[in-house]
Amino acid sequence: MALTGLDIFKLLPKTNCKKCGKPTCLAFAMALAQKRAKLEECPDVSEEAKEKLAAAAAPPMLKVQFGSGDNQVTIGQETVCFRHEEKFHSPTVIGVTVSDKLNGADLKNRLDSINALQFERIGVKIGVQAVAVVNDSGSAETFAQTTEAVKKECDYALILVTKSPDALAAAAKKVKDSVPLLAQATPETAQEMAKIAKENNCPLVATADSLEALADLTEKIKAEGVEDIVLCPPAGTKGEMKDLLKNLSDIRILALKKVFRPLGYPTISFVTGVDDDTQMASAASLICKYSGIVVVDTVEPYAILPLLTVVMNIYTDPQKPVQVEPKVYSIGEPDENSPLMFTTNFSLTYYTVESDVEASRVPSYILVVDTEGTSVLTAYSGDKLNEKTVAEAMAKYGVENLVKHRKLIIPGYVAVMSGKLEEATNWEVLVGPRECSMLPKYLQEVWN
């Protein structure tokens, strides 16, 4: 359990020396409990107290990394159950399966399809980050060969999925420099699987039929010398999604609210053996309900992109909207006669405008005004977008040197500010369409 301020106070020197910057040791203890101070700020604390306090201050959910180099991924280290409380730190990793029954052209086609699952959304590159090699053949040799082939063809973190210690040992030995995630140890195979994980310095997945058994299993694995553990919670006796979601939620609550160390690890879920639509729905639910890794069978872009979008949305800091740099952006090769328009620096707004301007095939300038990452209407209603902020942006980025016509197109939703903007800038203000999708027609017909 987490230590209270009074628990921490009992371990401090109680000299009230003020060296930590706080008036009393009790005030310092309360600040420590609220994570507003660091233990190092007390120069007189004993080594025994440091040891006890360090153990109590350890993150309630362990950080686990697998993969290597640029392909290394991080899961865990979460601190809250709801993103509005702070934010979620380690975005869910989307992984795709590769059966070791595939070979030759079939294997190559599968890997080519997985490699193509990379996208760009609002200026951010998103994509699959892991490949789960599944030991469907039951052969240790085949599993090892397929794993080695996947490593050569895919620049993703590896997850090795098998119930066989022999197969896991053979495959892990081939790719241990890539630091794969080894899945998975059961209560019956814990000792053997933990030995393989320790020998290859890889994290290990633990799975059991109940949360109680899973907690016992992690303690058993930890006793074997393996610290980096990922939990694969049960989906109930009938394998229903509602049971899996409940177990994921219970793990999160027990780890973060109760600081129950045996379940203080990130999680992995498998959504396989069902149609693409069911995979999408189930995987999206698992992303929202705390699964650190979600492994699916599908390689269809139409199924993967929505999942990556969910991850992006859930793991965006709700207090810090995704923003683009405020400045003037050139679309195509605009000149002094090209249209000039403005929008806000909320990424989704800017990239929507950019896309529609590109679709018009009319070379243009887009002035991005700093509204702290808010959309046009939100910024206007919050007085972050007004004639003053637009005029300042125009002056700052020297738009008068870019065009000679001194005409500015503004979003139709803020047409009401056109009069004041003309007074503030001495430019002619043209009211653009309310809907961005009408920009191509506007630029082609109204501007020209």
How would you sum up this structure, described in words?
With 448 residues, the protein is of the alpha/beta class. It folds into three domains: 5-57, Orthogonal Bundle (3-methyladenine DNA Glycosylase II, Chain A, domain 3), CATH 1.10.15; 63-314, Alpha-Beta Barrel (TIM Barrel), CATH 3.20.20; 328-447, Rossmann fold (3-Layer(aba) Sandwich). It has helices at residues 5-11, 25-33, 47-57, 104-115, 140-153, 165-175, 190-200, 211-223, 241-256, 276-288, 301-314, 347-360, 376-381, 387-396, 418-425, 439-447, and strands spanning 63-66, 73-76, 93-99, 118-121, 124-127, 130-134, 157-161, 181-185, 204-207, 229-232, 268-271, 293-296, 328-331, 340-344, 364-369, 407-410, 428-431. The strands form five sheets. An eight-stranded parallel sheet has the order 10-9-8-7-6-3-12-11. Strand 4 (118-121) and strand 5 form a beta hairpin. Helix 12 crosses helix 16. The longest helix has 16 residues, at 241-256.
